[in-house]
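Lab notebook: predicted structure, single chain.

Context: the supervisor wants predicted structures on file for every construct in the current expression panel, including those that have not yet been purified. This is the next one on the list. No modifications to the sequence; it matches the entry in the shared construct table.
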Amino acid sequence: MIANARMYAVAAPVAQAWRDLFAYVGERAGVAWTYIEHAAPAPVSELWARPDCGCVFMCGFPYVSAGSRHRLLAAPVPSLPRYGGRPVYFTEFIVRDDAAFATLEQAVGGRLACMLPESNSGYNAPRHYLMTKATAGTGTLFRPTRAPTPTPRQVIDAVIGGEAEVGVVDSYLLDLLRLHEPALMARVRSVAVTPAAPIPPLVASPQAGDDTVARVRAVLLDLHRDAACAGWLAQVALSRFAPVEAPDYAVLARCASAADQAGFELTGTPADTGKEQRE
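Prediction complete. Output recorded below exactly as produced.
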């Protein structure tokens, strides 16, 4: 079996902490797994499709929208106060620190860097949020970037590099970068935040046995009581792992369905902004 934290292995100290933490979890649970990297540009969907996942982060939107049979293990609870001690996260709309606009509304009509439609924080959540802010009948508010930005780092780089006026990124991932790469994060700022959504869980493949899943889950849920894990949890900015169930993620599918029914797209050619499309 394998373990992987690609979604949140955003800086070298964080990646090492995840490797060490997952090795400890496997040892405590009596499960032999290998930590693999599966780094970009390898599609993260290929990771989720593997039959040997033992402890892997999975985005909640593909988990619920594709009728996934992955076995839920637990979900992380970020330690910052804004998460309220719950297994939730947000999407932040980021702009360059020296951008001329102070609000998201002032950036409407510009280019928005986003991830693939399979992503909740990088696509589905911000699409639904913008739909709720738009005038009824509006099809979109932002234009796409010239080149795709399928990873959070590419979204951030597009904003810093001027290829996009706005980018959408997972708040927990950004908090990890604020902790471990403050110089990078000093180059961007947040101008809006979506409502809370259930955070990506740790999952095992559908083929994982009941006993294996139960033992791994029990260890994860007890980590915050284990003094040996305090340093690792601090490195990854978590207070604990919490139990989650499949219905917790149903809200993500409902948000996507609402945007689909409204015909609202995250990016396109805004017809109602009064701004001509710029190259």
